[in-house]
Design goal:
320 residues; mainly alpha; 2 domains
Length: 320
């Protein structure tokens, strides 16, 4: 731990990346199988229907997003320096556990991408006639960036904490602009990754077959896990601090409320006992009478002998 603290953050990130790269490749192989299946299915639908729309192909992310839970969980371990993670078990377990939640995340991701893109392009075209629409375009881009930051945190939060969906989305929105430094670091890391990936495409020299092969290799076997690793490396520490602090504060509030409730209950019980004692002291009972009949007192039928004992105890406590 001492050595880790002396290591620069960027050095730790690259160290974890290089040492964990074989596990990242295995994670990508597990992710590539469903990715290829869903991509091929929507490519066939796009082609056979003649629509040929990018957003038909983007439907791939919805059924694929649950498998991204496995990628996020494995890369989160590696980002934290836990390089002994069992890739296959961790991947499969998190896909099963978070399937429905990540399916919802995938739907929201698709909706966010769809409306951000079409809103920005619409206002860009309208800006040619009226420059004021460029302001709306810039606003749409800003919203899109904040949504990107939102999706930096939501997957990692989902696999790390047992939180309701409402809490996950609320915290994701708060961290999308509240953790700006971490978000910008993640964005810069993704930019560098794209620069490196683009250099491989440039080396293809315009050969369409080579470009297709390199794109497929990068897209299926390298970029998914490296993308998740970069994001998690940038955001996980601040995310853990925020969530655990909020949970700690929530527990403190619950404890204070519980203590207050107990105090009120004790006061209520004490007042009820005092009221009962006062009624007993005022109660007139003929102690010389024969028999031990039942007498109605405080909503209950109580034997006369028992009431006499209760009355004497109340009188003694009143004298003390």
């Amino acid at each position: 731990m001492a050595n880790e603290n002396k290591t620069l953050p960027i050095a730790r990130v690259f160290g974890n990346l290089f040492r964990g790269f074989p596990k990242l490749l295995l994670t990508n192989l597990l992710f590539a199988i469903p990715a290829a299946v869903f991509f091929a299915a929507f490519f066939a639908i796009n082609t056979l229907t003649g629509i040929n729309s990018f957003f038909i192909q983007l439907f791939t992310v919805i059924p694929l997003f649950p498998f991204y839970a496995g990628v996020v969980s494995v890369t989160l371990h590696i980002a934290k320096g836990e390089l002994d993670v069992d890739v296959f078990r961790t991947f499969v377990a998190n896909v099963k556990e978070n399937f429905l939640r990540f399916l919802v995340h995938g739907i929201l991701f698709y909706i966010a991408a769809f409306f951000t893109y079409y809103s920005a392009t619409l206002y860009f075209r309208m800006g040619a006639e009226n420059g004021m629409f460029y302001v709306l375009m810039a606003f749409c881009i800003l919203i899109g960036v904040l949504l990107m930051f939102f999706f930096f945190h939501v997957p990692a939060m989902t696999v790390s904490f047992d939180l309701p969906m409402k809490a996950i989305y609320r915290n994701g929105l708060l961290m999308s602009f509240g953790e700006l430094k971490s978000n910008l670091i993640a964005t810069f890391g993704l930019f560098l990754m794209l620069v490196v990936a683009s250099s491989f495409l440039i080396c293809c020299g315009g050969n369409s077959i080579a470009i297709a092969v390199v794109t497929a290799v990068l897209g299926l076997f390298i970029l998914p896990s490296v993308t998740a690793f970069i994001i998690n490396s940038a955001i996980y520490k601040r995310m853990y601090i925020m969530i655990t602090d909020r949970e700690s504060q929530s527990r403190k509030v619950d404890k204070r409320l519980s203590e207050k409730y107990s105090e009120l209950e004790n006061l209520r019980r004490k007042k009820a006992e005092e009221d009962t004692a006062g009624q007993l002291r005022k109660l007139e009972i003929d102690e010389s009478a024969d028999g031990d009949e039942y007498i109605y007192f405080d909503g209950k039928m109580i034997k006369r002998s028992v009431l006499i004992k209760m009355k004497r105890a109340a009188e003694e406590s009143g004298e003390n």
